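User: Fold this; tokens only.

Assistant: Input:
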Amino acid sequence: MGKPTGFLDYTRVDCPSRDAAARTGDYAPVELPLSERNRRRQSGRCMDCGVPFCQAGASFEGVLLGCPLHNLIPEWNDLLWNGDHEGALQRLLKTSPFPEFTGRVCPALCEKACVCGRISQPVTIRDNERTIIDYAFENDLIQPMPPAARSDKRIAVVGSGPAGLSAAYYLNRRGHHVTVFEKDPLPGGLLTYGIPEMKLPKQIVARRIALMEREGVEFRTNCHVGQQPGADELAAQFDLVIFCCGAQQPRQLPFAGAGGVFYALDYLRASAQSLLEKTDSAVTAAGKQVVLVGAGDSASDCISVALRQGCRSITQLIRKPRTEQTEKRDHAHEEAEAIFGADIRRYETQIESLTCGKDGAVRAVTLQGSGEQLPCDLLLLASGFSGCEPASLEAYDAVRKTGVPVLTAGDMASGASLVVLAIAGGKQAAAQADASLMGYTNIL
């Protein structure tokens, strides 16, 4: 423990955010880094608890507390406090394959379990993690590490989101031949097409994909498994298949299908594609009066993207009542308030019906109970997800019928959840696959 009194000497300092109104003019990251001195102080706040619940990843009464990857948090906090970035990196990579992702988009379950938070504010664990991995990439400490020897086993991973990448990462490290199939033009799944640029820059995802390729993982894009390649072809070429296709089927709402009405992920995907391909977005909020249904992370992402596209107005409809939990503001709400001068959220409010023009496109929404009408050119539905997409389930069934061993991982197995849980699920599937093929596993 580098600073025994650190939690008494220093208060928590979060990364400063760029001006809320100014940052809606671009897709650059919202947060700015702390100075090295202040970051070391933040790592020095770690108490090195006798029982570090931050790394437990345990469930108590249905609530998950601590890191699902069981990151060695007190160890790398101590090393970061002492200025040993290389040592901190080694301890971080011991348990976490993609800290550049989780250090940006994880809800920091570790901080919710931090003992320091019982007496003051929890340690800035997620920001410390991001600092370690960013320093490593910036100083060429991350280099390809292909396995020293290869097995004769060939494994297909269907889907290149966080679970698929995790499974591929560990199986490749084990020495197996791994091929990842992705239906989209670029690998990364949700990381590439679902999370906005300002939260997770696509260059960071592409950098990790390129590193995995140099380590021996093969990526095949624009592949719809079950069709091309077909199930029999896949079974003939591989000893085992792991499906990591996510749970992106939206929960159906009755007014979906009208013109100008889109599910959140479709809208976010269109935005991501336009930025990646440097073309106009197929769906844009530019100049439109936007109504958003939902209150989760996808809803907040829609708000941030709509503001950056230049929406004329935006109103968020939340079914739940106003409580301390639902009233919490995130970066998106700060931005909306900075642009429009008021909180855009309306609680205990649902849509009763739509008013559409002669072209079939939405023009207004009528609110349930009050009959109030809100002008609306673009209606976004962040209504959650009901499970895996039908095409992915059909592909899974087709491959399973061939007799080749098949596993599932990530959201496809658990339902829509967190990136960090998908990474953990991918690792578990990799260990199961390895044990099945080799009789034992050292993926722990």
